[in-house]
Structures are given as structure tokens and as C-alpha cells.
Design brief:
The complex is a heterodimer of chains A (537) and B (375). Chain A has 537 residues and is mainly α. Chain A has a three-stranded antiparallel sheet. Chain B is of the alpha/beta class. Chain B is globular, with a radius of gyration of 23 Å. Chain B has 13 helices and 13 strands. In chain B, the strands form three sheets. In chain B, strands 5-6-7-3-8-9 form a six-stranded mixed sheet, sandwiched between helices. A four-stranded antiparallel sheet of chain B has the order 11-12-10-13, covered by helices on one side. A three-stranded antiparallel sheet of chain B has the order 2-1-4, with helices on one face. In chain B, helix 8 packs antiparallel against helix 9. The chains are: A mainly alpha (537), B alpha/beta (375). Chains A and B meet through helix 2, helix 3 and helix 23 of A and helix 6, helix 7 and helix 8 of B.
Chain lengths: 537, 375
């Protein structure tokens, strides 16, 4: 172990002179900080982060293929765990508390914070692989690149296909009212097919580029326009906005072959709608088939690795021979291309979509579903638990520490089984937890009456330390679950009672952390001191 | 007993003079004096030993120059007890050993020795006094320690076990760590650690680890480490066990010097099997047998047992027997030593009598006041 960390002259590998100076300064002035090895930890963490980052940058990663980030995260986590084990071994060497010096009363609390920070830093290496993946993908594709490429692919395919499959607009449209009330009002008039009174058919025709359309209201739809926009606009269909809130949704043949998902939200280039494509191809076509084929070929080659020109003619012949693929129907209900396989066969649509999905996954992982926040929260909780264990271990004997862990497990299991047998409701469960926590604290206070160091008071003290965190969250949960027994939270009449529930649960978590730190700084540190210094049996 | 370094210098006991000078320098509490003393020690060490007159003269001059800046050595024994041990007893819940009620006091500047055979309760007594083991009856009063709680008591009462606990990292770092834990920070920390390294001859080992030093040096290290934590009471369990004869003598002398410190007098309590060595430095010796204190050297009852002389001889046993005939003395032989006990003759008189009868004595010791006679 010594060979790993110290050379013959006492210098540590990869540690520059200033680290040694900091080490000496901390040793001479702040032994508690020095004993945590935070300076070495931070230095080696920087090196570790840099090495992992550089290695991941060098390792090949094809953004068009399924990401292997999970495997990389597992390896990085394993490395971080090994680093933490080494650090823990190092940590055991110098224990300020057990040397009976003159430690400050705030030392246990300070140690908890430092251990937590260090463990969190180590745990957060989990984020490096997806971060590097994102960076590499960002370097290859800008936000606009994907949308632009998809637009080009859709355009080129339509150019190649439109002569064989001319799109004919049927004029079958649906008119959505601006408000729900308006729809109800129209519904009451029991006229299924009439124009909405505030929308002029001519204006619709104008806005859609002289296409003969009629806007109709369909009463079985109970969507708010805004909801419809979110729901259907993403599907790439053609929706035109009327005024601020009214929408017209055109049901026609879908000529969108490839859809973009996340890219559309972050790109300044908008994905082309079916309607826009229709216009570009039927009204403003400027690109020849040969040019379209060449452009499409380069794009397909880029996303899938297949060359289209080599196989295009052959595939068209195969399509003719199989006598299928030329007449695709429009399913009005789903509005999907029904013979998708034919186009997939010709243009590798599935592979392109997958490649785009993988790219989007890499590029927008951090923007979606609070990915980073959830990792931070999970890492925070896990590392806080580990920090508490470390602090408890450093302020206890091995025997008491092990006994406290075992007792905690036994108490949890027995209590859980007992609560399950009596079919306890959530308020009772919360109350039981709070009672246990109070019991641990009360039992630990007995150490002030003991003349000897007792195993039982040691166990109670440690369990009190581990569990105090959950008091606020248990109390908040108890309150809302009790409320729920009287006023059903799913009943809209009582919804106001639960407006702040999520926020208060969130606050309770921070309150739990605050309570733990305050208790650690002001109470537990002194209790550990009193307990540990008592004579043994 | 003032242990004047000038006397050592005069007699050419340079190593002793240096150690005593270092202790006096530490007592001065002046950083510049401590630094000078450390430099003097370093200079002495680098010369390896005083092997010629020039070196001796230089060292003597330097030491005297330093001593002139120091206060005159003075013993600092106190009548106030740091720890009062009142009839404490201890019985282990597992096992059938009991420490019978025992009373004593530990005073600053005094060395108390506890002797006895193995398994008779010496370590139990020490651990009880150090606050490590709970006592069953009696009381321990740490009134003289000015300690707020039991943790502070354990800080003030340093306990050095027979087997020194393993430590990690470099020797020097451990000393720095202990010093800074005790509130000695910054330049003072560096100064005192350098001083302690010199004082206990550890400078050459400062960069080594536990595995790289012998058990004797581990004991030295532990004493240096403990002293940096500025205890008021130092308890040592069998400190001589791992030391060679010279090292034993050095350690005992050091303990005597440390206890005598005028600035921070220590109460020293130690156990040992080396009866004579302990008796040489201890102000009081307790003999423990089967958990009971059966002899205390400072009690008058010790002198009622008569005068005793322990000796070895190459003369035949019959010759010795013949020699003692005619005097009021009782002769016994334990296989190794003869013991001669008399209520009328002193040890010197007994020795003179034997020599006059042509008994060839190879070793002898007056054990009249020694616990040895009780073994």
C-alpha cells in the first residue's frame, strides 16, 4: 500500500510540489482536515476525471449505433469504487477522534460534510461517459444538422416517389374549436358537419395556399386545441394555426418518411410538415430526380453506411416485380403510411430513424427528464448514507458499529413484517418510524447515566444518527396520508388541500438534511465523545 | 536529585549531558532555545560520538553556552496528587481474576513502579487508572488534572501499552499529527517535532514506517508522540520488555528526567519485570501478587524484614555455608542466587564478612529494600 502512495522520499506519485506543501500545511495546522485527505482526494479526483474524460474521448464511439454508455458507466463506477476503497483504507490510518487529542466539538459534523462532498465527487464520475458521448456527438452534429438532414431526406424521397405516387388532397379536414366550451356549444346544436361560426372557409383556403379545403367540426373529439397541437404536431402531420388558439388539422396522405423528435425542439431549422413538403414538391420543385438521388445517397450513407445508388435501380425493379408498394392507402384513423416496409426496403428508413434516435439520445440526454438532477439526487442519497456510516465508524468501536448495523437491519425487518401483518396504513407506518427514531434518541441519552461504555447505548446512538434524517419527511407524509383518509386526494373537490404536497415533501428532504447536520454539529459529536471515552467493561 | 548537566559534562558523560540539556531547553518554553538545543543535538549526532578531545571541547563549550541561557535545573515534585486511587477493585465478568482493593496516589514529578509476576493484575491496574477499564468499587479522582470530562482525562493520562499499536505512514508525520491534534500548530509544531526526534534519537528514522523500525524504536516513538500531546500522567506497561540493556537504562533515565521537568512535571506509572532497574528510578514501588498489593516500598513495614544480600559466587556452596556460620544470618539458595538475610548485620557488613572468608563473589546486590526478596 505504501508503495502505491508514497515514494522513497515521501513524495506521492503524480502529486506536484504544491500538493506536498498543502499536505504539510494541513498536517501542521488542521489535522482533522489533513486526516480526511481531502487535498489528496481532490487532486487525484481531478486527475481521475481528466484521465477518464481523455480515455473516453479517445475510445471510438459511433453516434449512429446504439450507445454503450451503460457499460462505460459501470466501468467508471467500478474504478471510482476502487478509488474510494483505497481512500477509506487511508482514512482508517489517522483518526483524529480516537487519538484523544483536543478535537473541536464541530469535528464530527465537519467530517460528515467533507466525506459527503468527497463521496459525491467520486460518485459523480457516473456522469462522465454520457457527457463525453454528448460532446462527441455535438461535435459531429449541431442541433440544426439533424433537422436539416431529415428535411432533406423527406424531400428527396418525395421527389423520387411523387411521380409514381402523386398525392391528392381530399379536403377531408377536421376543424378544432378554440375552446372546449365552444365545442360543447356546437355539439349541442347536433350538427356534425358544419362550419365553425367564427372561422371563414375562404380564409382557410387562403392560408393554406389555395388548396381546396373545407374546415369541418367533428364533435366526438374532446381535445383542447393546445393539447391537440402538442399531441399531433409532434407526429409531423399538418396542422395550421388559426389565430392564437384555433387549429385546423388536415387529414391526408402522410408524406413524412422520417420524423425528428428532440432535435426539433432545439433546432432553429423547423421540421418540414407534410403540407410544406407538398408545396415544395408539387408547386416549387426545383430539384431533379438525379440530384435528389445523389443527395439522398450521401445522407443514407452517412446515417446507415449503405450506398443507395448501388442498389436503387435494382430495388425499384424488385418493387415492380413484386407488384406492391405503389398503392399505399391512407388510413384516416391512424394517418400512417400503411406499406412502410416498401419504403423501408428501398430507403433504409428504419435504420435512418434508429441512427437519428441514437444521435438524439446522445445529444439530448441531459436535457430530457431531469436526467442530471436524478443522478445528482440518487448519488446524493447514496453518498450521504455512506458518509454517515464512515462518520459513525470513526466515532465508534468495530463491535458497536457492526452491532448497530445488524440491529438496524433486524429492527427494519421485524417492524416491516409486523406492520404488514396488521395491514398498517401509511399514517401508521410513518408514525411507527418516527416512534422508533424517538426511541433511539431516548435510549442513547442513557449514556449520560452510565459509568461504563455500553454496547446498547452505542447502538442506540448510531441508529439515532442514521435515522434522524427521515423525521421531517415522515411527518409530512403522515400529515398528507392522514388527510387522504378523510379527504380523498383524487377527489377534485379537495385538490386544493394537496396543492403544496410535492413542494412540502421536497422541503422536508432538505429539512431532514438540515436537521441531521445541526444535530451532528451540536449534539451527536458531544454524545460520541462522551460515549467513546467511557471506560470499558 | 537534580540531575545537573554540568556534572555530566565534567565527567565526560556527553550523551547524558545532551539529553538533560535538551530537557532543560524544553522546560524553558522558548522557541529559540529549543531550536538551539535541537541544533546542538544534531551537531552531536552528526559527529556520531565524541571521539577526540577537539570534538569534546567544542561540544562542551556549545553545551555550556546553551546551559547559561537556561534556568538552573530544579526538581519539581508536588505534594498534590494528580490522581487519587481509592480502594479500587476490578473483577472481569469473564474469567475469575480479581484486582483487590488498592489505593495509591500519582503525583507530578514522581515515578511509581508496579512489579509482579505475569498475570497478577499489573496491566489491569494500569488500565483502570488510565480510565480504560471500568472499576467495580472504590473511586478514581482526577481532580489534579483539570479535565472537563472523561475524554479530557484520557487526553491528560497517556497510556503506552506493552504492544505499541500499529501506526501508518511515516514516523515524522505521525508526530506532527499528534502534536497538531494537541493544539501545537504551525512553526511550533515543526520545532517541537524536530526537537523530539533529536531528543529520542529518532531523527535518522523520521522518514521510516512502522515496518522499518525495531520494537525498541517503536517504544521511543510512542513516548515522543505521547509527550507531544502534553499529558500530565504517563502510564507505561512493560516499557522495558523490548529493549536491550543500554536502551533500558536510557529509557529509565529519560523517564526520570521527564518526571523532573520544571515546566511540565509528569507523574509516571510503569510496570516492569526488571525489578532492580525500576527500583533505581522509581520513587515508590508496588508489588502485586494475585491481584493484591502485598508490598509498597515507601511503607515502614518493608524495613522490618531485615537486611538482605543477593549474591552469586564461584565458591562451593559448602564454603559459603561455612562462611556464614557464626554470624546472625540466614542463607538460602534458589538455584541461581544465594540470599543472605540478617536482622543484625547490614548488607555491607555481610559482604565484608564473606570477602574476609575468601568467598569469591561475582555478583552481589543489596536487596534489603527491594521487592526482589519477596519473589
Amino acid at each position: 500500500m505504501n508503495r502505491l502512495f508514497a515514494t522513497a522520499n515521501g513524495r506521492r506519485p503524480l502529486a506536484p510540489a504544491f500538493i506536498s506543501r498543502i499536505d504539510k500545511w494541513l498536517l501542521l495546522n488542521y489535522p482533522t482536515l489533513w486526516a480526511t485527505r481531502i487535498h489528496l482526494f481532490l487532486w487525484y479526483a481531478i486527475i481521475g476525471y481528466a484521465v477518464i474524460y481523455a480515455t473516453l474521448l479517445i475510445l471510438p464511439d459511433d453516434p449512429h449505433k446504439r450507445s454503450n454508455v451503460v457499460m462505460r458507466q459501470a466501468i467508471v463506477t467500478l474504478l471510482a469504487t476502487l478509488g474510494l476503497i483505497l481512500w477509506t483504507i487511508y482514512l482508517l490510518r489517522f483518526n483524529t477522534f480516537k487519538r484523544f487529542g483536543q478535537p473541536h466539538a464541530l469535528v464530527p459534523g465537519l467530517q460528515l460534510l467533507l466525506f459527503w462532498c468527497m463521496l459525491f465527487i467520486a460518485g459523480f464520475t457516473f456522469v462522465i461517459p454520457p457527457f463525453v458521448e454528448k460532446q462527441k456527438t455535438d461535435a459531429k452534429y449541431t442541433d440544426n444538422d439533424i433537422t436539416y438532414a431529415v428535411n432533406q431526406i423527406n424531400y428527396c424521397i418525395n421527389v423520387l416517389e411523387h411521380e409514381y405516387n402523386p398525392v391528392e388532397l381530399s379536403g377531408d379536414t377536421i376543424l378544432f374549436t378554440a375552446t372546449y366550451e365552444e365545442a360543447n356549444s356546437l355539439n349541442r346544436q347536433n350538427d356534425n358537419y358544419r362550419l365553425a361560426p367564427d372561422i371563414d372557409a375562404d380564409s382557410i383556403s387562403d392560408s393554406t395556399g389555395s388548396i381546396s379545403l373545407s374546415a369541418r367540426y367533428r364533435p366526438d373529439v374532446r381535445w383542447e386545441p393546445a393539447d391537440m397541437k402538442d399531441e399531433w404536431l409532434n407526429s409531423g402531420d399538418t396542422i395550421l394555426l388559426l389565430g392564437d388558439s384555433g387549429l385546423v388539422h388536415y387529414i391526408w396522405k402522410n408524406i413524412i418518411y422520417i420524423n425528428v423528435k428532440s432535435s426539433g425542439d432545439y433546432s432553429s431549422v423547423r421540421p418540414l410538415t407534410a403540407y410544406q413538403l407538398y408545396h415544395l414538391i408539387y408547386r416549387q420543385k426545383t430539384v431533379s430526380n438525379a440530384e435528389a438521388l445523389k443527395t439522398l445517397d450521401s445522407l443514407i450513407l452517412k446515417f446507415t453506411g449503405h450506398s443507395l445508388t448501388m442498389e436503387y435501380e435494382l430495388k425499384l425493379k424488385q418493387r415492380e416485380q413484386s407488384n406492391r408498394g405503389w398503392d399505399y392507402d391512407v388510413n384516416e384513423a391512424s394517418n400512417f403510411i400503411t406499406n412502410y416496409n416498401v419504403f423501408d426496403f428501398t430507403y433504409h428508413l428504419n435504420e435512418i430513424e434508429n441512427a437519428i434516435r441514437y444521435i438524439e439520445m446522445r445529444k439530448y440526454r441531459f436535457e430530457r427528464n431531469d436526467y442530471l438532477m436524478w443522478i445528482a439526487v440518487a448519488t446524493g442519497y447514496i453518498t450521504l448514507a455512506l458518509s454517515l456510516l464512515l462518520v459513525a465508524f470513526r466515532h465508534s468501536t468495530l463491535k458497536t458499529f457492526a452491532a448497530a448495523l445488524l440491529s438496524g437491519v433486524v429492527i427494519s425487518v421485524v417492524t416491516g413484517v409486523a406492520l404488514a401483518i396488521v395491514n398498517a396504513r401509511p399514517p401508521a407506518i410513518m408514525l411507527t418510524i418516527v416512534i422508533w427514531v424517538m426511541f433511539f434518541h431516548a435510549a442513547s441519552l442513557f449514556l449520560y447515566r452510565m459509568r461504563k461504555r455500553s454496547l446498547w447505548t452505542g447502538i442506540a446512538l448510531q441508529l439515532a444518527v442514521y435515522s434522524v434524517f427521515c423525521i421531517p419527511i415522515c411527518l409530512v407524509t403522515y400529515y398528507y396520508e392522514s388527510l387522504h383518509q378523510i379527504y380523498n386526494r383524487y377527489d377534485e373537490r379537495y385538490s386544493e388541500l394537496y396543492v403544496n404536497e410535492d413542494f412540502q415533501r421536497f422541503l422536508a428532504q432538505w429539512a431532514g438534511l438540515g436537521l441531521l447536520l445541526v444535530m451532528m454539529f451540536l449534539v451527536y459529536g458531544r454524545m460520541f465523545r462522551k460515549w467513546y471515552s467511557q471506560p470499558e467493561e | 536529585m537534580t540531575e545537573n548537566p554540568e556534572e555530566y559534562l565534567r565527567n565526560g558523560d556527553y550523551a547524558l549531558a545532551l539529553r538533560r540539556t535538551l530537557d532543560l531547553a524544553l522546560d524553558s518554553n522558548k522557541p529559540e532555545i529549543i531550536a538551539q538545543a535541537t541544533a546542538l543535538s544534531r551537531k552531536y549526532r552528526e559527529a556520531l560520538a565524541i571521539s577526540d578531545d577537539t570534538t569534546a571541547h567544542t561540544f562542551t563549550a556549545d553545551a555550556r553556552a546553551l546551559l547559561q541561557q537556561l534556568p538552573a535545573p530544579a526538581a519539581n515534585r508536588s505534594d498534590n496528587a494528580l490522581v487519587k486511587i481509592n480502594s479500587i477493585s476490578k473483577t472481569y465478568t469473564r474469567g475469575n481474576f480479581s484486582l483487590k482493593p488498592l489505593s495509591m496516589q500519582l503525583k507530578a514529578g514522581e515515578i511509581t513502579g508496579v512489579v509482579g509476576e505475569n498475570g497478577n493484575g499489573k496491566t489491569t491496574l494500569l488500565r483502570c487508572i488510565a480510565g480504560q477499564l471500568a472499576i467495580d468499587s472504590g473511586s478514581l479522582e482526577y481532580a489534579g488534572l483539570n479535565a472537563a470530562d472523561h475524554y479530557a482525562i484520557k487526553s491528560a493520562v497517556a497510556f503506552i501499552p506493552q504492544r505499541i499499536p500499529r501506526w501508518y505512514g511515516r514516523l515524522r508525520d505521525n508526530l506532527h499529527f499528534s502534536a497538531s491534534l494537541s493544539g501545537i500548530t504551525g512553526a511550533e509544531n515543526e520545532l517541537l517535532v524536530d526537537f523530539m526526534l533529536e531528543r529520542f534519537g529518532l531523527s535518522g528514522y523520521a522518514g521510516l514506517t512502522w515496518n522499518q523500525i525495531s520494537s525498541g524504536y517503536r517504544t521511543r516513538f510512542e513516548i515522543a508522540r505521547v509527550l507531544l500531546m502534553r499529558p500530565q500522567v504517563m502510564i507505561l506497561d512493560e516499557p522495558l520488555a523490548n529493549l536491550d540493556i543500554n536502551a533500558q537504562q536510557t529509557l529509565l533515565t529519560d523517564l526520570r528526567f521527564l518526571a523532573l521537568s520544571s515546566a511540565r512535571p509528569l507523574a509516571v506509572l510503569l510496570t516492569s519485570q526488571q525489578l532492580h532497574e525500576v527500583e533505581k528510578v522509581a520513587h515508590r514501588v508496588l508489588l502485586i501478587r494475585q491481584g493484591s498489593c502485598i508490598f509498597t516500598s515507601d511503607e515502614p513495614s518493608a524495613h522490618t524484614l531485615g537486611h538482605a544480600l543477593e549474591l552469586e559466587t564461584t565458591s562451593p556452596r559448602d564454603a559459603v555455608k561455612l562462611a556464614v556460620q557464626g554470624i546472625d544470618a540466614e542463607l538460602s539458595f534458589n538455584g541461581g542466587f544465594f540470599t543472605l538475610v540478617s536482622h543484625t548485620h547490614t548488607a555491607q557488613q555481610l559482604l565484608k564478612h564473606l570477602i574476609e572468608h575468601d568467598i569469591h563473589i561475582t555478583y552481589c546486590r543489596d536487596i534489603s529494600n527491594s521487592t526482589k526478596r519477596l519473589f
